[in-house]
Amino acid sequence: MSCARPPGEIKSALTMLASLLVLADAASEGRSVILSMLVVGLIFVLVIAIGELTHYLAVKRKARTPSRTL
Question: What's the pTM value of the predicted model, to 2 decimals?
Answer without folding.
Answer: 0.55
